[in-house]
Write a structure and sequence with these properties.
Number of strands: 14
CATH superfamily: Ribonuclease Z/Hydroxyacylglutathione hydrolase-like
Bound molecules: D-malate, manganese (II) ion, zinc ion
Order of helices and strands: EHEEHEHEHEEEEEHEHHHEHEE
Strand content: 15-25%
Shape: globular
Helix content: 10-25%
Radius of gyration: 18 Å
CATH topology: Metallo-beta-lactamase, Chain A
Number of domains: 1
Largest sheet: 7 strands, mixed
CATH architecture: 4-Layer Sandwich
Distance between the termini: 5 Å
Number of helices: 9
Structural class: alpha/beta
CATH class: Alpha Beta
Length: 310
């Protein structure tokens, strides 16, 4: 499999349009050690020809233009695209809005949990994707689905599974108590497999907690892309950016007693890469103590254009 990180930032990107935090100001002014990042998405291909998007970010147009493999083939038809499917891990703005960029009567397939598809169904703007050309397929949880595009099977298998998390911000229902009406399938992780090659990786860009079922599932994985939203739970409060903790947003932190570095350390995972990194996160500063601690703990910090082959 060829895996490309199209966008390694969380919602808002890096820099975020209205943010003058230390990180955003630094990257905007071109300070060494800071690198701009677009919003959360990966692309995966078995053969380098047909590609599957894992989430469709609001920056998708830029990401396609920055990634030659995803552009129209110069020797192809007037209208052609190597993007054959998009798999959605939740209904967050940073993960679904790119679908709108994929209008223009181009066939491809959309996959998501019943919860995510229900959100698309309720928002009529997504009808800009003609369902006869862009069918929506429900990903059953905990059972493998072979992905297929408009021209047939893509040779990739996805197993979706619910992870601890929260319903998308704009779907929160305050009357539903602490979990805002979140249900299973609002946030999913993906095992992505090439059955012919016997390779597999995990993609979990949003996750509130590494609970025992999740730990068991990813134990001894060879490759994991994981939620790197915040370094510390209260970093946005401390920086005066937003009165919300990571826990309130449904994101586990990188550091700390209940952080992902600690939770994953005993799991024997081969390669661990943070994605969905919020602009407040100090690991975005290549010269920070937080970055050093993260890399010393065996994690890589994902960046746009990063490519991994399995
Ligand atoms: C998140 O990851 O928590 C969301 O993308 C936040 C948002 O919708 O702004
Ligand atoms: Mn997000
Ligand atoms: Zn910022």
């Amino acid at each position: 499999m060829i895996i490309k990180v199209l966008g390694s930032a969380a919602g808002g990107g890096f820099p975020q349009w209205n943010c003058n935090c230390r990180n955003c100001a630094s990257v905007r002014s071109g300070k060494p050690g800071f690198r701009a990042r677009t919003q959360s998405s990966l692309a995966v291909s078995r053969d380098g020809r047909d590609w599957v998007l894992l989430n469709a970010s609001p920056d998708l147009r830029q990401q396609i233009n920055d990634t030659p493999e995803l552009g129209s083939a110069i020797d192809g038809q007037h209208r052609n695209s190597p993007i054959k499917a998009a798999v959605l891990t939740n209904g967050d703005v940073d993960h679904i809005i790119g679908l709108i960029n994929l209008r223009e009567m181009q066939p491809f397939a959309v996959y998501g949990s019943d919860r995510v598809l229900a959100t698309l169904d309720k928002n009529s703007v997504f009808n800009v994707l003609n369902r006869e050309m862009v069918p929506r397929h429900e990903l059953a949880l905990d059972s493998p689905t072979m992905l297929a595009g408009p021209d047939g099977p893509l040779g990739l298998e996805i197993e979706a599974f619910a992870v601890p998390g929260k319903v998308a911000l704009y779907l929160e229902d305050a009357s539903q108590g602490d979990n805002f009406g979140s249900k299973e399938g609002d946030t999913i992780g993906l095992a992505v497999r090439d059955p012919a090659a016997g390779t597999e990786f995990f993609y979990i860009p949003g996750c509130a907690e590494v609970d025992p079922p999740l730990a068991r599932r990813i134990e001894n994985a060879s490759l994991l892309f994981f939620d790197g939203t915040l370094f510390t739970d209260d970093e946005m409060l401390q920086a005066g950016l937003m009165p919300k903790t990571g826990k309130r947003m449904g994101h586990i932190s990188v550091s700390g007693d209940d952080g992902s570095i600690g939770a994953m350390a005993p799991l024997g995972i081969g390669r661990k890469i943070y994605v969905h990194i919020n602009n407040s996160n100090p690991i975005l500063d290549e010269n920070s103590d937080a970055r050093r601690a993260t890399e010393t703990a065996g994690w890589e910090v994902g960046y746009d254009g990063m490519e991994v082959r399995l």
